[in-house]
Amino acid sequence: MSKPLLEEQFSGVVELGIKLERVGGLTVWEAQPVLRHQKAVFRIQQSIRPVSEEGDCGCFQYADLSILFPDGSEKRPDISIFCCEPDEEDESVSMLPEAVIEIISKGYEAKDFEVGVPFYLAQGVKDVITLDPRSNEVHLFRRNSTSQHLSPVEIVLECGCVCTV
C-alpha cells in the first residue's frame, strides 16, 4: 500500500472510533478505549515521577502518542515514557520510549501480549508493563526477566522513573 493511501486510511478511521497501528508490516486495529481503560491510563499517568530529584530522567509521559519505531512500524502505546521531551510535535515521534504501559482491553489480549510485548522489547524499549483492569493483573517485561504483580503495585523503571500500576 502506498504511503499516501496508508496515511489516508489511518486518518479516516479515527472518525469511526478505530485505532490503527502498523507493526512489522501488519496493520492491527482496535476499538477506541472504553471508560475503564481511560480511567486506568489517567490514574497511572498521575503517578509517574522520577525516583529521585538527582536522576537524569525527566519522566515525560504521553497517552496514545503515535511513535514511529526504528523498523518503520507505527504504534500508539497507551502510555509512553521518555527521559527527554520528543522534538516532533506535528508528526509521529521517532524517539524510542524508555518504557510503555498497555492497558489490556477485553477482546484485544492477543494484540497486547503476543504482538505488543515482543515488538517493544525487540525495538529496545527497556520496560513494558501491561495491566488488565478487570483482573488487576500487572506484568512487567524486561529484556531478561518477567514478573507478575497484583494492582496496585509501585514499579521502579530502569530509566529512573517510578509509577503505580
Note down, in words, how this protein is organized.
The chain is α+β, with helices and mostly antiparallel strands and 165 residues long. The chain has a single domain, classed as tt1808, chain A (Alpha-Beta Complex). It is 24% helix and 34% strand. The chain has three helices and 13 strands. It has a six-stranded mixed β-sheet with strand order 4-7-8-9-10-11, sandwiched between helices. The chain is globular and about 40 Å long. The mean pLDDT is 87.
Quick take:
The protein has helices at 3-13, 35-47, 109-123; strands at 18-23, 26-31, 49-50, 60-63, 67-68, 74-75, 79-82, 99-103, 127-132, 137-142, 145-150, 154-156, 161-164.
The name of the CATH superfamily reads: tt1808, chain A
From the 3D coordinates, which CATH architecture would you assign? Alpha-Beta Complex
Overall mean pLDDT stands at 87
**Rg over CA atoms:** 15 Å
Please bin the fraction of helical residues.
10-25%
Task: From the 3D structure, determine the CATH topology.
Answer: tt1808, chain A
Largest sheet: 6 strands, mixed
Instruction: Report the CATH C-level class.
Output: Alpha Beta
Instruction: Report the structural category.
Output: alpha+beta
The number of domains: 1
Described by the principal axes of the CA atoms, the overall outline is: globular
Order of helices and strands: HEEHEEEEEEHEEEEE
Strand element count: 13
N/C terminus separation: 38 Å
List segments where confidence is low: pLDDT < 50 over at least 5 consecutive residues: none
Identify the strand order in the major beta sheet: 4-7-8-9-10-11
Number of separate helices: 3
Tell me the strand percentage band.
25-35%
